[in-house]
Amino acid sequence: MKQWIAAAALVSLAGWAQADGLQSLEKFMTSSQAGEAQFTQTVTSPAKQGQAGRVKTSSGSFAFQRPGKFKFIYQKPFDQTIVADGSVLTVYDADLNQVTQRQQSKALGQTPAALLASASSLQALKAEFDVSSLPEADGQQWAQAIPKNKDGQIKQVKVGFKGDELQTLEIEDGFGQRSVLRFVGFKALPSLPGSAFEFAIPSGAEVIRQ
């Protein structure tokens, strides 16, 4: 009898632990209407026969504001800006002095950006993703999102929280490539100025509109 009670208690506790990741994600989406942080990104490509997987590391700053505005500024090892103003998604490669723009509505959808900036609520997110909690790991509460559209490039996304603070974003694509973004100094803000998501095309830059 005592063993049954102990087992039931463990199951109950496990259920609470697994609920934390989803609750953290929901709270993040409802309470953090804007935010900013520094980040480090590690991209690991799948190993080829006889070779180890390639690892690339970059870093920069990140900001977002719901609905649908965000900016990634990569500073190391290359200079690149990715900014969405709510209408247009712009990618600027400083080394090539090249700007690529496309309609934001066609570029996002089932992407990690939808988790952080596009969807206004957990219910809205569920229209594009199957969302669930994962067990606590590395001192973080985890939620997992799997795109409902299996034809996209993203296989799954995991989001890690420490308390109310966004800590980690893990992305696995259909080719086996894994990207991990670790956020530092995340600040939830009531809003950011619209100018934070404006992009002025540099003089002489090649512009490609898709």
TrEMBL record:
GO biological process: lipoprotein localization to outer membrane; lipoprotein transport
Keyword annotations of the record: Chaperone, Lipoprotein, Periplasm, Protein transport, Signal, Transport
Main location: periplasm
GO CC annotation: periplasmic space
Protein's UniProt keywords contain Lipoprotein: yes
Subcellular localization, as worded in the UniProt entry: Periplasm
Signal peptide from the UniProt entry: 1-19
Entry keyword Isomerase: no
Pfam families named among the record's database cross-references: LolA
Task of the protein: Participates in the translocation of lipoproteins from the inner membrane to the outer membrane. Only forms a complex with a lipoprotein if the residue after the N-terminal Cys is not an aspartate (The Asp acts as a targeting signal to indicate that the lipoprotein should stay in the inner membrane).
HAMAP family found in the cross-reference section: LolA
Protein family per UniProt: Belongs to the LolA family.
Matching NCBIfam families: lolA
Subunit structure: Monomer.
Protein's UniProt name: Outer-membrane lipoprotein carrier protein
UniProt organism field: Comamonas koreensis
Lineage: Bacteria, Pseudomonadati, Pseudomonadota, Betaproteobacteria, Burkholderiales
Originating gene: lolA
